[in-house]
Amino acid sequence: MMQHLALLHRAQKLHPHQVLFSIKEVFRTANWLIFSAREQITKHKKERQRFFSKLGYQLDLENPKSLNQKIVWKKIHDRNPLLTITADKYKVREYIRLALGNETANEILVPLLYVGRNPQKIPFENLPDAYIIKTNHASKTNIFIEPNNPANKKKIIDQINQWLTKPYGLFAHEWAYQNIPRLFIIEKFLQDADSASLKDYKFMMINGKCELIQVYSGRDNELMCCFYNAQWQYQNIQWKNKYGPPIEKPAALEKMIAIAEKLSAPFDFVRIDLYEINNRIYFGELTHYPASGRLEISPTNIDFLLGSKWNHKKKYWKDENTSLTIYKILRKNTPSTTKKLQLN
User: Fold this and answer.
1) Which ranges of the chain does DSSP label H, i.e. alpha helix?
2) How many CA atoms lie within 13 A of 71 on its CB side?
3) How far apart, in whole angstroms, are the C-alpha atoms of residue 107 and residue 283?
4) CA distances from 269 to 54, 263, 312 (A)
5) How far apart are the first and last CA of the chain?
6) Is the backbone of residue 33 left (phi > 0), alpha (psi -120 to 50) or beta?
7) Which of 160 and 315 is assigned the larger pLDDT?
8) What pLDDT was estimated at residue 307?
9) What's the pTM?
């Protein structure tokens, strides 16, 4: 709150857009404080209502048992500082390098074309015909540029400015996103040689072990999702009351799982998203709160079976865990990384 007031105090030195942003931040913070206090007093009544409405059973935060219940519990209680760094779509790149080494990181990181704070400084004339723009602090804030969908500079600038003024997950208890310094990044657009839609492999990692793999396909048409175990055996699990079609085993599955195991090591639970194109693996993101703890999978016993595999503790990251060590290294290295990329 004091940070926002300090910004207002310096308002005469700011651009009108920045002043408006600062004012909105103050009011948004005040609303969040009221919301948070109300949720505490009512034992997270709003979160419980959302949970029941989506999944059809009660949210138990005192003794969570299902996967979804434990994800919500994680949102409210887990304050592992490494969550924020790895939820940041820009800073997570340094985590990848530290966890996997530069050689593997260079193989799997999607080429970074630009990173900045001011979209008006985007060098559109120097960018390729296809790329993706995304903010680093949120989900579903992507702009896809392709030859058949060329860049509209004004719309892009306006959209990015709008996204950067809004926090993500603030009223959904998604703590990991709240302290991310907001930026936008531009990456190479990934596409199969035959121009087919990418398959998105999401590895559910519980206590460092792959317990389930979600595969999303058909993003260009109808989005479909199917499930496999680590041995690539099809699982009779529905997503939003639908079974997804069988998918051919990716050639690099074992390597993908090995990568997911290393990246998930400091966490009790995380979803690791990877792509495979022409037998090459690309990193997507680390997701700590899939579907904000309202993942629509059925039958419901699968939800509870996955939850039973998760041994959750409030401060697991302080007990013989590498989270704090990694966090301190990354926090120390962040300024040099930022300077090297010359943020605008």
Assistant:
1) 2-9, 16-41, 45-55, 67-77, 82-87, 92-100, 102-108, 153-164, 253-264, 300-308, 323-341
2) 24
3) 9
4) 22, 11, 8
5) 26
6) alpha
7) 160
8) 98
9) 0.88
- The whole-angstrom separation of Cα 311 and Cα 321 is 14
CA distance 190 to 199: 11
β-pairing verdict for 142-145 and 184-188: unpaired
Percent helix, percent strand, percent coil in the chain, to nearest 5: 45, 20, 35
Residue 127 dihedral angles phi and psi, to the nearest 5°: -90, 155
pLDDT tens digits for range 318-338:
887 789 999 999 988 764 333
Look up the CATH number of domain 60-108+196-332. 3.30.470
So where are the chain's domains? 60-108+196-332, 111-189
Q: Is 110 left (phi over 0), alpha (psi -120 to 50) or beta?
A: beta
State the virtual CA torsion across 253, 257, 258, 260 in degrees, nearest 10. 140
Check pLDDT > 70 for residue 12.
Answer: no
pLDDT in tens, 26-69: 766 677 677 778 888 988 999 999 999 999 999 999 999 999 99
Neighbours of 24 (CB within 10 A): 13
pLDDT for residue 337? 37
State the Rg of the chain over Cα: 21
Structure tokens at 115: 């990173």
Give the C-alpha separation, 274 to 262, whole Å: 13
Calculate the average pLDDT of the chain: 88
Length of the chain: 344
Handedness of CA 84, 277, 236, 255 (dihedral sign): negative
The CA distance from 163 to 250, in Å, is 35
In sequence order, what are the residues at sequence separation of 6 or more whose Cβ sits closer than 8 angstroms to the Cβ of residue 330? Answer: 82, 85, 91, 94, 95, 98
Chain Cα centroid distance, residue 239: 20
